[in-house]
Hints:
Blueprint: E1 2-6, E2 30-32, E3 57-62, E4 75-81, E5 87-93, E6 102-108, E7 114-122, E8 130-132, E9 138-140, E10 148-151, E11 158-160, E12 169-172, E13 178-184, E14 191-199, E15 204-213, E16 219-220, E17 224-225, E18 230-236, E19 240-245, E20 250-253, H1 254-258, H2 264-268, E21 271-276, E22 283-288, E23 299-302, E24 307-310, E25 313-316, E26 333-339, E27 353-357, E28 366-367, E29 373-377, E30 383-387, E31 393-398, E32 404-409, E33 415-421, E34 428-434, E35 439-445
Amino acid sequence: MVSCQADQGSFTATPPQTFPYSSTTDIPDILTNPPVPVSPVPSTEMSAPTGTPAPTIVPVVTVLPLVTPLAAGGSPFFDSWSPDSAWIAFWWVEYGGEELPGSLAFVRVDSGEICSHPEVTTEGVGTGNVHWQDDGLVQVVPYPPEKTYSGSPCETFVQSQPPAPSQPVGEISPNGRYLAATITELGPGLYPMTTTITDLSSNQMIASISWEFAPNDAVGGGPQWLNNQVYLIGPALNQGFLYYSIPDGAVRKVVTDLLGLDEEFVAQYRSIFSQVDPVSGAFHLLLKWEGGPTPLPLLLYHGELGEIETLPFYSAWPFNSPEIPGFSPDGGWLLLGDPVGEEPYLDNIGEDSWIRPVEPPGSEAVQLPQGLFLGALSDEAPLFAVMNPNQSAVNILGYPGLEIISRWRTPGYDFLVIAGWSPNGSRLAVMGHQLQSNEVVLFVIEP
């Protein structure tokens, strides 16, 4: 059923370019402290966000569920798309997601065929358990990782040996020369970590770094190579994020040494999210306030330029779970909220969301129509999926113009959650929730 309706009203807010916060040390709009020599660039003034165009009439489409709850009990929870965008992996979980374990299942999107694999279970249902290979095979690592499974949708899965304890998780630098590996030993409350850096050209270990991670002390990116010279180790207890420098073999603090901020900001900017372009070697860091008496605005570090930009927002929203908050999957866009000058929601998502290019510094931010928020940006197609404020409908926008192309509703379900775009950008998985029955269904939208 297709019908048309006119959008009602609009929301426009233009945050000021002066930020009402106080601190022992003020943060200027642009700070320059390059980690390596860079070509000088002119300082860029920051543009305040601007409002959106007048509302337009858009088609409203009713979409039917692809996967509904089992008659015997159990709701589908999205896990991941297959590389060819033909299959969705999901987990059958008792209503409400409170009864575990969940059992693995797949659905073929074109036909609606469902294949259940009750032999594969997990105690931690969530995206990332199912790992798709390019040849169509699937490796499943349940939680806890006491065993792994290999197989294909609708065929028997074979149990394989569990991973060795304390097995290093390695990451090779973009130029292929260095290998970084981190070994974790679980402990009561604290997580002792050891990160090693090996020069693959000589097969010699050049660094062994011991540090501790404490739950809830900091969140964000890492361990991760930011370029061929800098490795982001991760959030260390009482030290904030650390990084290792290849040229001088030193371990330093991101906030004070790389960004040049005062020590007091280590405890205040405890969330750092990273975005890396492995081809060009450019990287960005997004710093979010997490502690201190007065909220501070977001900071965006442009690694290639060596500049810090103060953004007129307090919060960054995730484009597409499990993507890092703030950055789009392709690394080219920021999804922001809580404009400075208004009472911040901070961890609670408000009804004002703004999108802007990551580069250049000072790029204009544009507000999403009708207070839409929580977006999923397609990797391949110029489409952007966002929610109504009450999560009752999915809106498909084109970008960068942000015009609403269509609106998708699911009668009978209280709120929707965007699960993720397919790899080819042609399909969007959405979960619908029915509060009274605690049922969850799985929808697929094809804009």
